[in-house]
Amino acid sequence: MICDDKLLLVERAKNPGKGLLGVPGGFVDPFESAEQALCREIDEEVGVKVDIHQLQYFGSWANEYLYAEINYHTQDFYYVVELASKPQLTLQQSEVSGVKWLSKHELELNQLAFCSARDALAKWKSS
């Protein structure tokens, strides 16, 4: 989610990547599209309702997700949502310990939890 040229990043409340930054998102439930899953995850994690038609596909990147000592290979899809104003956020404390709105210049890629996020946001920073 982008507002005033700043990207909303969430601080992860649990592993993998506890304390590092990421974008709102998560796994796709059975019978969900990637877009439906993203809208659900944004609502769950930060309390913002996003219309599926607002999503603009940005790209996909391979990722590794270490969970319960198993290394899962995932394909992560990234979308952009442009917001006219910063929304009121309600954080899902079990998943999100904080948020930051960062510009391209403020974002440091080594702050990000996952390699797919580093790749996606490197593309965003260079655009």
Task: Please provide the count of β strands.
Answer: 6
User: Averaging pLDDT over every residue, what do you get?
Assistant: 97
Distance between the termini: 16 Å
Main pleated sheet:
4 strands, antiparallel
Structure description:
There is one protein chain. 20% of the residues lie in helices and 32% in strands. The protein has helices spanning 34-46, 115-126, and strands spanning 2-3, 6-12, 21-22, 56-67, 70-80, 96-102. The strands form two sheets. Strands 1, 2, 3 and 6 form a four-stranded antiparallel sheet that branches. A two-stranded antiparallel ribbon has the order 4-5. It is globular. The protein starts with a strand and ends with a helix. 22% of the residues are buried. One of its GO terms (molecular function) is hydrolase activity.
Secondary structure topology:
Layout: E1 2-3, E2 6-12, E3 21-22, H1 34-46, E4 56-67, E5 70-80, E6 96-102, H2 115-126
Antiparallel strand pairs: 1-2, 2-3, 2-6, 4-5
